[in-house]
Amino acid sequence: MKILIDNGHGIETPGKRSPVWPDGAQLFEWKYTREIAQRVALALQKQGLDFEMIVKEDTDVPLSERCRRANAIAAEVGVKNCLLVSIHNNASATGTARGWEIHTYLGKSKSDECATIFWNEAKAILPVGTKMRGDWTDNEPDFDSNFAILRDTKCAAVLTENLFMDNPDDCRYLLSDEGKAAITKIHVQSILKIT
Ligand SMILES: [Zn+2]
Predict the structure, then answer these.
(1) In what order do the strands lie in the sheet with 100-104?
(2) Ligand 1 mean position to 8 CA, how many Å?
(3) How far is ligand 1, taken at its centre, from the CA of residue 90, in Å?
(4) pLDDT tens per residue, range 90-134
(5) Is 157 strand, coil or helix?
(6) What is the CATH number of the domain that holds 78?
(7) Residues of the chain whose pLDDT is less than 50?
(8) In whole angstroms, what is the distance from residue 165 CA to residue 61 CA?
């Protein structure tokens, strides 16, 4: 099984960053998700798993191009032999929302089973009391979302929203060594269980 890692936004994407906190810290989503993606890649490499970064650039690669790249790889190795994982940080208008969530495309597919594995790992790995934001309308924890990276890719695909970068408590945890290790571990352990 080949893992396609999508680390989302680019350096020049507007927004997609935390406020500057009183201690001067700030999270940039493009940078943070690239760091997590690199950590995940290193761990997968150690485990001998096959993977590829969809976005090797720091710049904002349009969704259409990211989907095209993913589909080209999937066509090579077989759609059923691929899992795309898109890594993000969440944000709310108010900065008060917190927690972890996962998205798949509308309807039922293999992606939903993969998302449930991610959910269970996140629940086990994140500190006790971390808000787990599920959409249980279909008895599964993932949100069904009409996102291009989920809709226009032909292989199984999940998108993780790893806590809220504009919430001071979530963001402090994200930027901590412990937080980075936990977010990485969620992805690595889930991928190991799926493959
Ligand atoms: Zn994002």
Answers:
(1) 50-53, 2-6, 82-90, 156-164, 100-104, 143-144
(2) 6
(3) 6
(4) 999 899 999 999 999 999 999 999 999 999 999 999 999 999 999
(5) strand
(6) 3.40.630.40
(7) none
(8) 21
Query: 103 forms bridges with which residues in the sheet?
Result: 143, 159
Q: How far is the CA of 188 from the centre of ligand 1 (A)?
A: 19
* Domain total in the chain: 1
How far away, in angstroms, is 33 Cα from ligand 1 center?
9
Count of H helices and E strands in the chain?
6, 6
CA of 129 to the centre of ligand 1 (A): 24
Total residue length of the chain: 195
What domain range is 50 assigned to? Answer: 2-194
Interval between CA 135 and ligand 1 midpoint (Å): 19
